[in-house]
Amino acid sequence: METAKGKTRRSSSNLFLRITDICKVHSVGVASATGEKLKAESTVDSSEDGVHLKVHPHQVSDQESCSGSSTSRFEEAVVEKLLDAISGLKLTYVNVQQSVVPYVPEKFVVADGHFVSELEEAARLKDLYLSVDKWSNPMYQSHVSSRIHEHQKLAVELQAAICKKESDIVLLRAELEELEKSNVKMIEETDGTAIQREGIWKGEPIDMFIELYERSSKCIHDFTKLVVRWMKASGWDLGFSNFPVEKSFVYQKRGHKKYSFEAYFARAMFMRTKEEYFSMDSFDDIMSFTDPFDALVEAPNSAFGRFCREKYLVAVPCSMEVSFFGSKDHRAFIENGGHPRTQFYQAFARMARNVWGLLTVARQLKPKAEMFFVKGDVQFQKKHMESVPAKLTPEEAKISVGLTIMPGFKIGCTVIRCRVYLSMLNTGDL
């Protein structure tokens, strides 16, 4: 009993001394430039104010001293923190005064920030003090415990739901792979029957060229979609930061960035190709295969085989292959003269065969087909260009070419228009 009573009295005495000490620091000189006079006046004012300050300590009863509960100790701790906060407020306020007389803007901003921070800290003590009664209430503790159990039960249910969703994803992914295989097979069958139509084989060479041009454009578009889908699955940044595509103009829509990929693959397939890769002697044989990969298996080092291998190494960056396959083994197999039987390479081979056939026929036409691209910022002209994906509403005078998606060809007086993506002139100023 005596021990508890003594502790309470010593604690009350300590708090009394703290409060008295804080109240004595009532006013402080703030301008060092005014000299010792201002400092002395401030000290006098502090003493006088302290004389008139009266503090009435609370007499602790025996009953209160015996209630040394955790709540009482918590309240004492909060009061101690409150006194520390008040002391901090007084000191930071002195710093504010010192930054005002004389006025120094930089010091004032810093001092004001410290003062506001101390005020916020003191305000948080109120919530801390009010919470002690709530947490000491057994009913509230029971309520919190029940809520915790409810959330734990909910977490278990959510985890079970996540596991079910993951299993569904695995099944759906398997279905997607089957559908992709079916689509590939249907495309191969369609390509095989379309290219063997009588109008293509026995018609005019110019008609065969136009047919191959449309098929090449479609295959480049389909292969680009496959690449973009694989890039997303591999975590690539589609902002083109790591891919050599055109990005110097403003796209009409965010989704139109895919046309830069399409333009990149078109340039890689059509530009800088060796003449030795094109021969009409093997044209009929290569184009007769339903699946172009079978032609590569039968004659891996044919003109088409060498064309397909070289263009793949040019068009597909090494970093992309590593992200898709996890290593450079796929690329090394191609560099050593092979043709890997993978879905990705087979899709590339379909695109490569149509481009190879188009370029082969282009060299046999009389006169030869002359390929052309359009540079960026050139004014749009309907005679030589076709807008992709659609026409723009403003007048033609205000429209310029952003990039060439598919090259055009000129055969004597016949022009197969190139396909371009349009942008507004002076887009950098918008």
UniProtKB/TrEMBL annotation:
It holds the Pfam family GIL1_IRKI_C. Residues 72-186 form the DUF641 domain. GO terms for biological process: negative gravitropism; response to red or far red light. It comes from the Eukaryota. InterPro entries: DUF641_pln, GIL1-like, GIL1_IRKI_C. Residues 371-421 form the GIL1/IRKI C-terminal domain. This is DUF641 domain-containing protein. It comes from Eleusine coracana subsp. coracana. The gene is ga09209.
